[in-house]
Amino acid sequence: MSGQDTELTLVRQAAEDKPPYQRLLGDAMRGSTELFTREDSVEAQWQVVDGILGDVTPLYFYEPGTWGPDEAYQLIGRHGPWLNPRTPESKP
């Protein structure tokens, strides 16, 4: 076995030439906090949205070609009743 001399060329790459993920990892390893959110800030954000995440509106199914589900009449409330408009093609 014999070794062979090889020339090593190192080039410092400018930050804007690095791929974004490589820049992000480099910033994390250097301790740069500009691109990262603190834990207490993330927790505060979750407190704002956590209460509404489980408040999901149910799906109401209705027949194609109709004006929507019966539950839609509840949206009108005391301002109703809802009158379904008729087109010349619709049957009475």
Short description, anyone?
The protein is mainly α and 92 residues long. The chain is built from 3 helices and no strands.
Task: Note the topology.
Blueprint: H1 20-30, H2 39-53, H3 73-76
Description of the structure:
The protein has helices at residues 20-30, 39-53, 73-76. It is mostly helical. It has one domain. The longest helix has 15 residues, at 39-53. The model has no long low-confidence stretch (mean pLDDT 82).
Mean pLDDT: 82
Q: Percentage of helical residues?
A: 25-40%
**Radius of gyration, taken over Cα atoms and rounded to an integer in Å:** 31 Å
What is the total number of structural domains? Answer: 1
Would you report the number of β strands? 0
Oligomeric state, counting identical vs distinct chains: single chain
Largest sheet: none
Distance separating the two termini:
96 Å
SSE pattern, N- to C-terminal: HHH
Strand content: under 5%
